[in-house]
Specification:
- It is built from four helices and no strands.
- By secondary structure, the protein is an all-alpha fold.
- The longest helix has 28 residues.
């Protein structure tokens, strides 16, 4: 079973390398964020595979911590994008004075 787990770990490392290249090259912030999510998810999978292959239960705790940090990163990104994309909630001067010409 160990050769199978090692080959799965090698495949996951290759996926991490591809995600790292996508984070570095972009082209948009959304692409970079999705690649970092892939990085976090694949990292959790790799840690789980390695925990089972090497019989190291401490890696399960590290995988859980990485999963929680990954969720916090995506929440921070989404709140930042939502703040940028939303128009201001205060009406402009023309909107406050307009409409009462009657």
């Amino acid at each position: 079973m160990t050769p199978v787990l090692n080959s799965v770990a090698a495949f996951l490392l290759l996926t991490l390398l591809i995600a790292l290249i996508r984070i570095w090259r972009g082209p948009s912030p959304a692409d970079r964020m999705l690649a970092s999510q892939l990085f976090g998810t694949t990292g959790v999978g790799l840690l789980l595979v390695m925990a089972h292959a090497q019989s190291m239960p401490a890696l399960l705790d590290v995988a859980l911590t990485l999963a929680l940090l990954s969720v916090l990163a995506i929440v921070a990104f989404v709140t930042r994008v939502v703040r940028i994309d939303q128009p201001s909630s205060q009406p402009s001067a023309s909107e406050r004075q307009g409409g009462e010409d009657g």
